[in-house]
Each structure stands twice: as structure tokens, then as C-alpha cells.
Amino acid sequence: MNILITAGGTSEKIDNVRSITNHSTGRLGKLIGESFLSNGHHVTYVTTPQAVRPATEPHLTLIEIETTKELESALLDQFQKQTFDSIIHSMAVSDFTTETTLSEDTFIEKLAATLIKDQALSDLTTLTEALYRSIDEIGQTIQNEKKIPSGTDRLLLFLKKNPKIIAMLREQQPQAVLVGFKLLVGVSKEELIRVGKGILVKNDCDFVLANDLEEINDKQHKGILIDRDGHTQTAETKPEIAQLIVNSVEEKWRDR
């Protein structure tokens, strides 16, 4: 099989020395990749600089990215070059990226300058609409500083929504056995399964691995693998999850 795996956590630049990221280490993705490789499959592994990854070997192709935009570009490039039998999208992708950054003084000056142009701010509705327009205009301010000065009491960071990478995978590779991931925090098993099923249906996945951050530590990683029929299988550690995913994907692929 020809397998694509994304793993690790993307980061979004604030300036040339600062970024926003998450705590994903890529350890589960690494184990999944190693399990596929040990079974003789070819793995294209897309990951981030800080994440762990499988050791170099002939059947492994490694692609390194940092931002969500770079991830999107790398995947579209790969989809033009080859067809994948399965995609394991375990990467923790940033929901938002940096639009611009402003000091408190600069923000207030820009907001005041845009609002003063409007002479008809006599009611709440009109004022609210003007504020939305102003925020949109300020958010498009070009960030020129390579390193944002630290001499301000408050730094305002404007974030904008990133595209959902998982949403494009089925469209780009309709034949692939697609595995998505969903991480929640402090929910019941029933809620975890309910949300996991929603992700599966929404993104046309074959499987979704639903897990709760409160049940992940150095010794355990409880995960629930949900399939299209709503059946669930539970694993208690990262190696168990990796083997469960590999076995399920191989079985699904053989049945097609």
C-alpha cells in the first residue's frame, strides 16, 4: 500500500522569532508510520521540525512543513504526483493563523481614525456595524516588523481562520482509506463518540480516532476508533492505537 501520514503540530508565525503552536509531539504518528513500514508499505510522512519521526529507510519519504498553508501546499503537490491507498491525518493543525499584530497604541489610533470617518454613529446597530468594518480593515494591516518591539503594555494579535485540511482530503483522493482524528478535553465517553461520529460523517472518513486529552499521559493514551457503521474499538496505549489503525486500514483496503 501507498500510505500518506501527517503528524506533529503546525505553527503559525507572529514574526521571524515568535510563533503560535500546540503541544503535539508526533509520537503517535511516528508509531503508526513505523507499523506500516514494518508491514512492507511505502509511507510518505509529512511532519514538522520539532516532531519525532520514523528513522530513515528506503520505503519512507519525509516531507517537512511548519505552517498550515505549507501543509496544504505540500499535500496538494503530493496529490498531483501520486495516488494514495490510505491517508492517516493525525497532525494537530492550527485552527487559526496570524493576520497581523499591533501595539495597543497603534490599534487605538487606527480604530479611532476609521470610526471618525463615519458621521452617523447614533445608535448601537450602526456603531456595531462600523466596528466590524473597522476591525476588518485593521486586520488587513501589513506586518512589516521582522521582530515585533516589546515596548508596549499590550500586544494585540489578530488571528484568522485556517482552512480545514481534512475537509479536502476525500475530494482530492476519493479512493483512499481515510483516517481522521479528534481530540477533546474532559468529556464523557458517549460525548467523545458522538463528536467523533460527527467528524467522520462531515469529512467522509472511513475511520476517526477520538481521544480525550485527560486520558493521555506518559503511560497511557486511550483512544476510540470509530468506523462508518458506528462500531467502536478501544485501545489503551499509543502502540495499541497504532496497531489498531494499521490493522483496520489494511482490512478495509483488502475489502475494496
Describe the SSE topology.
Elements: E1 2-6, E2 12-13, E3 19-20, H1 27-38, E4 42-47, E5 60-64, H2 68-81, E6 86-89, E7 96-103, H3 104-115, H4 124-139, E8 155-161, H5 166-172, E9 177-184, H6 189-202, E10 207-216, E11 221-227, E12 232-235, H7 238-255
Parallel strand pairs: 1-4, 1-6, 4-5, 6-9, 9-10
Antiparallel strand pairs: 2-3, 7-8, 10-11, 11-12
CATH topology of the largest domain: Rossmann fold
CATH H-tier superfamily of the largest domain = CoaB-like
CATH class descriptor of the largest domain: Alpha Beta
Class based on secondary structure composition and strand pairing: alpha/beta
The multimeric state of the shown protein is: single chain
Q: What would you report as the Rg, rounded to the nearest angstrom? A: 22 Å
Strands, count: 12
Please tell me about this protein's structure.
With 256 residues, the chain is α/β, with parallel strands linked by helices. The chain has two domains: 2-95 and 163-255, 3-Layer(aba) Sandwich (Rossmann fold), CATH 3.40.50; 101-161, no CATH class. 36% of the residues lie in helices and 27% in strands. Strands 5-4-1-6-9-10-11-12 form an eight-stranded mixed sheet, with helices on both faces. The protein has a two-stranded antiparallel sheet with strand order 2-3. Strand 2 and strand 3 form a beta hairpin. The mean pLDDT is 91. Keywords: Ligase.
Comma- or semicolon-separated keywords:
7 helices; Phosphopantothenate--cysteine ligase; 2 domains; CoaB-like_sf; ligase; Rossmann fold; 8-stranded mixed sheet; 36% helix; 256 residues; DNA/pantothenate-metab_flavo_C; ligase activity; two-stranded antiparallel ribbon; 12 strands; alpha/beta
